[in-house]
Amino acid sequence: MNTFVLIRKLWPFVRAYRGSLALALLLTAIGALLAQVTPLVMEYTVNTVQNLLKKPIDKQEVSWVVSTLVAILLAKELLSLLVQLGQKFLSDRIRFRMAADLYDYTIRRIVSYHLSFFALGQNQTGKLEKRIDKGIDSLTKTVKNLFVDIVPMLANAAFALILIYNKNVGVGVVATLVLPVYAYISREQTHRQKQIRRNIQEIRENKANALFGLLESIFVVKSFVREGYEQGRQHDLNHRLAENEIRHHRTNYLFDGLKSVAEQLGIVLVFVVTIYFVLNRQMSVGAILLHIMLFNNVSAPVRHLHRIYDEYTEALVYAEGFFDMIENNTYLLQRGSLKTAAWQGHFALRNVDFVYPNGKQALKNINLELKPGKVTALVGLSGAGKSSALNLLAGFYDPTQGSILLDGQPLSDYDSEFVRENVGLVLQKNHIFAGTVEENIRYGKLDAPFEEVVDAARRASLHDQVMQLPNGYQTEARALSGGQQQRIAIARLFLKNPPVLLLDEPTASLDAITTEQIKDSLDAIKQNRTVLIISHNISQIMDADQIYVLQEGEVIGEGTHESLYREGGLYRDIIDSNARSMNLTRLAATVLG
Ligand SMILES: Nc1ncnc2c1ncn2[C@@H]1O[C@H](COP(=O)(O)OP(=O)(O)OP(=O)(O)O)[C@@H](O)[C@H]1O
């Protein structure tokens, strides 16, 4: 990414603050002019003092000259202070507000992406978090550097150079000569740092991700006594980062030293040339002080310019990853605008192939239908592609080949929010947010009164257990057991009350009695809805109106429980295994007597 592209991408975010920017630039010009006052006053002082020394001391004249100079210097300092305060205030306002806008925009973009975006290795939680944070931080710094720091510095250096040239072209040329040397050293420095910076960025992302992973899996780490192994993995990353940081800093010190030499050389040259003119009586003694101070006004900003350039090149590296992430239209849900009141909820997959972003083909030439008001079940061994099919129906992913129809129209023609509003999901791993039980259930219907939340919890066989908790519905939901969390997800679904239900192992982590209660509740809300259920629990499968048997991503059988069982094959094997694992003979003998 180059500067032009970066400014073009940043401009939409900066535009809102163009008034503040213009004001900051105005203050900049005033500040740069003020910075030249001191050298001029010093030149005048030296020359005046020299003239005063040539004649007998006139106390009145001396005190007038001294008080005037003190007044000018104090007034200049006061004005400079006000200008700097104004600049800092404006710069902070632009920076922090723009950071907030960038965060808003990033969140809006990211939550609208397809799940396939989050399935990519480079987009794991920790890495994304680091990229967003570092990206926004670098960009806001860049705006401050570009619009608030660089311009004042350049203005200051330019005004000082103009003044030097105005005084003497020879001294001006000497002062200017140092600049290309400076620029060359800075460019070399940046060039050498580029790859190191990329390494640092990559390691930082991996480190954040590894730390997230470690904290998330702390139970597994402890149960397998893998503390030492995990420490080793973190240690490698930390040390690789440390080595790169050391190389980065070492290069900086070296080049900073070179630049300091160039600057000192400049001062010596300006000094020598000015002395030459002074001794030839072409300049006053005050010119020595004036030129040295003006040269300082040229070199000081240039010295800072490198810091800015440095931060800027770092920002370019981070900006690249950041904009790649927030401008990724490939993962934006491309959906139409269709919304229909005559919703039937008839879904159909037609010759659907689906390949995950990592290249794994999960579905091959799938044809299946979810009929309105009917219960459809997907059965198959682990990894057969059942959840993948459900993900496609929920619109989380798009098929690689083939089409998904909803009431005869391609699913992609529908407004995606409209479809998701009408579809309720209970997944294998139901995410419970940080928050109370009440907040987590209410997520199904944000404006639901408390009574409705309680009613949903009752239907999900959760209410009684919640009431036994010391803080009832105000208990932190993540502190509940796996089965209780599963029921929070089911209560959430009851509250949402959608016409289509997609259930992936809805009772996976529940005990037998709760499973039966939930089954009854689900049976009650299944009436007149389109339902898809995936379950390894045969009692939930047998009642389905239509069952599809999946094997290695393909539909290998369809029908009712009875017809599929008669056909034999995988379905029969699954049912028989289920029956055997339940030890049906003994169970029947004890239960039925
Ligand atoms: N996010 C993913 N990225 C890549 N491959 C995936 C992803 N999710 C699933 N797969 C792969 O796709 C195939 C089908 O997985 P899927 O989860 O659909 O199976 P399933 O029938 O639901 O299995 P289970 O009964 O164990 O839940 C598997 O081989 C799995 O490894």
Strand content: 5-15%
What is the residue-averaged pLDDT? 85
Rg is: 36 Å
Structural class: alpha/beta
Count of spatially separate domains: 3
- What is the overall shape? elongated
SS element count, helices = 21
- The first-to-last residue Cα distance is 78 Å
- What characterizes the major β-sheet? 6 strands, mixed
- In the CATH hierarchy, the third-tier topology of the largest domain is known as ABC transporter transmembrane region fold
Enumerate the distinct ligands. adenosine-5'-triphosphate
Helix content: 55-70%
CATH architecture of the largest domain: Up-down Bundle
CATH class of the largest domain: Mainly Alpha
Please give the order of strands in the largest beta sheet. Answer: 6-7-8-3-9-10
The tally of beta strands, per DSSP, is: 10
Low-pLDDT ranges = none
CATH homologous superfamily of the largest domain, by name?
Answer: ABC transporter type 1, transmembrane domain
Structure commentary:
- It is a multi-pass membrane protein.
- This is ATP-binding cassette domain-containing protein.
- Residues 22-314 form the ABC transmembrane type-1 domain.
- InterPro entries: AAA+_ATPase, ABC1_TM_dom, ABC1_TM_sf, ABC_transporter-like_ATP-bd, ABC_transporter-like_CS, P-loop_NTPase, Type_1_exporter.
- The protein is an alpha/beta fold and 593 residues long.
- The protein folds into three domains: 3-331, ABC transporter type 1, transmembrane domain (ABC transporter transmembrane region fold, Up-down Bundle), CATH 1.20.1560.10; 335-422 and 498-593, P-loop containing nucleotide triphosphate hydrolases (Rossmann fold); 427-497, 3-Layer(aba) Sandwich (Rossmann fold).
- The chain has 21 helices and ten strands.
- The strands form two sheets. Strands 6-7-8-3-9-10 form a six-stranded mixed beta sheet, with helices on both faces. It has a four-stranded antiparallel beta sheet with strand order 2-1-4-5, with helices on one face.
- Helix 17 (512-526) links the parallel strand 7 (500-504) and strand 8.
- The longest helix is centred in the N-terminal third of the chain and has 53 residues, at 59-111.
- It is elongated and about 130 Å long.
- The mean pLDDT is 85.
- The structure holds adenosine-5'-triphosphate.
- Adenosine-5'-triphosphate is lined by residues 119, 356, 358, 360, 362, 380, 382-388.
